[in-house]
Amino acid sequence: AGTINQKGSFTYSAEKIGSETFLSQIIKTVRDAQGSKAPIQNLVDKIAGVFIPIVIISATIAFFCWIILGKEMGFTHGIVAFVTVLIIACPCALGLATPTAIMVGMGKGAENGILIKDANALDRAHLINAIILDNKETIKDISAIHIGEIIVAKPGEKMAVDGSVINGESYVDESMLTGEPIAVHKTANAKVYAGTINQKGSFTYSAEKIGAKLSCRRLSKRFVMHKAAKLPSKILLIK
After folding, report:
1. Which residue in 8, 35, 160, 175 has a CA-CA distance of 20 to 30 Å to 56?
2. What CA–CA distance (Å, rounded) separates 41 from 135?
3. How far separated are the first and last CA of the chain, in Å rounded?
4. Element (DSSP H or E) covering residue 200
5. Quick one: which of 174, 165, 171 has its CA closest to 204?
6. Pair 206, 164: CB distance under 8 Å
7. DSSP designation for 157
8. What is the pLDDT of residue 233?
9. What is the pLDDT of residues 84-128, one digit of tens each?
10. Rounded to an integer, what distance in angstroms lies between the CA atom of residue 211 and that of residue 155?
């Protein structure tokens, strides 16, 4: 439902209608997610619950001070002071910023085909350091990749593990490992290394090394050992 036929005509049998359609389920998911609360919002609500009464009390004190001390124009100045304190000190931004950010973030995600389960997932999104797609282009946890698994590398993505290209071709930036600024052309059977960045084109590659056996981790380990031993840098390079 909601998709548009471009060319040609065909007949199809209705299987899902109303709220059961895929489009309706997406809309429901986005609405439910926008209505959920992030952990940070609970903290904001607690702060606002204490701060708002303090603001109202302060505004009331300012009003009565003007009534008592302001003589003829005391009431007018008291009203102005009361409203001023409420407007300036009231934590409206504190209470509105988080839910507004959640609604905008989830709305933009939905526009780009990314459905966010709830506000908690959005709140923890900054902890993501890699998104891995298997050959079916489903999102996987990097720790779940096993030897021989086929992974899709798209433009701009980092290689998740060491492996060999199966099909497709691209240019990969390996400067983090080699120091060379020129991207390396990769075709079938070429080696790719975790942490390097795919520049152009897409390809699939098979995972060959994972975890502590990754080239980047072995390089980091040797660098740490080199620093601990305080050896000349030339010895590290010769190894």
Report:
1. 35
2. 38
3. 61
4. strand 197-200
5. 165
6. yes
7. P
8. 47
9. 888 887 777 677 777 787 778 877 877 777 777 777 777 777 777
10. 24
pLDDT for 235: 41
Q: Which two tokens stand for residue 39?
A: 């952990």
Strand 139-140 with 162-168, pairing = unpaired
User: What pTM did the predictor assign?
Assistant: 0.42
Q: Nearest 5 degrees, angle CA 215-CA 217-CA 221? A: 115
Among candidate residues 134, 141, 162, 173, the one labeled active-site is 134
Torsion of CA 171, 175, 176, 179, to 10 degrees: 160
Q: Is there a catalytic annotation at residue 134? A: yes
**Helical packing angle, 74-89 and 39-69, nearest 10°:** 170
Given pLDDT bands bounded at 50, 70 and 90, which one contains residue 136? low
Q: How far, in Å, are 152, 203, 206 from residue 166 at the CA level?
A: 10, 7, 7
- Show the tokens assigned to 75: 């009431």
Cβ count near 99 (within 10 Å):
17
CA distance 198 to 181: 13
